[in-house]
């Protein structure tokens, strides 16, 4: 059904799209329209390191400092976060597209191999942090809530590293850089 809305005060007319059933495909299509900041979630030590590229990292609260990240339960990242009890949230910029793709699994790299081509340091928690990240947030797991296909990880912030630049955005299947 097409909906028609008119605002005579501003002479604005808009037509909305046809409603779709609330299924996984429709939800994915809707969420692709929402731009999100790109972060690389890192966890583990040595050869047990792994990580993932996400747009689901956000602040839960600033006082106390807590972060929230949603991780797929079937990913290789969640078991490592659970085992080590830490995670690095590396907010990346336009110079990190290749790295973001590596951690998204493009190119087939897995585990510690995803860390290739970048400089890393070890945070207070033990989590790997990207040296030239726009910002990096070191967390220990405060709580993990398993729901459906994902785990909502609440991280207690231990330390923050501020770098330079603007964060990389992801929308409609593509990266976008702010200038």
TrEMBL record:
InterPro entries linked: Flavin_Rdtase-like_dom, NADH-dep_flavin_reductase, Split_barrel_FMN-bd
Record flagged with keyword DNA damage: no
Coiled coil, from the record: none
Domain Flavin reductase like: 31-177
Keyword annotations of the record: Oxidoreductase
Keyword set includes Oxidoreductase: yes
Domain of life: Bacteria
Family (UniProt): Belongs to the non-flavoprotein flavin reductase family.
Protein name per Swiss-Prot or TrEMBL: Flavin reductase
């Amino acid at each position: 059904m097409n909906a028609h809305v008119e605002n005579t005060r501003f002479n604005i007319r808009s037509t909305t799209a046809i409603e779709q059933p609330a299924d996984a495909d429709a939800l994915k299509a809707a969420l692709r329209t929402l731009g999100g900041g790109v972060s690389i979630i890192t966890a583990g030590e040595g050869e047990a390191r792994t990580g993932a590229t996400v747009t689901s990292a956000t602040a839960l609260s600033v006082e106390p400092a807590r972060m929230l990240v949603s991780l797929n339960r079937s990913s290789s990242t969640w078991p490592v976060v659970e085992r080590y009890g830490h995670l690095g949230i590396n907010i990346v910029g336009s110079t990190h597209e290749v790295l973001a793709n590596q951690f998204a699994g493009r190119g087939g790299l897995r585990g510690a191999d995803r860390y290739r081509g970048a400089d890393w340091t070890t945070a207070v928690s033990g989590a790997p942090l990207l040296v030239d990240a726009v910002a990096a947030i070191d967390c220990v797991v405060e709580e993990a809530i398993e729901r459906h296909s994902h785990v909502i990880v609440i991280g207690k912030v231990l330390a923050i590293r501020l770098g330079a630049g603007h964060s990389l955005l992801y929308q409609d299947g593509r990266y976008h850089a702010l200038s």
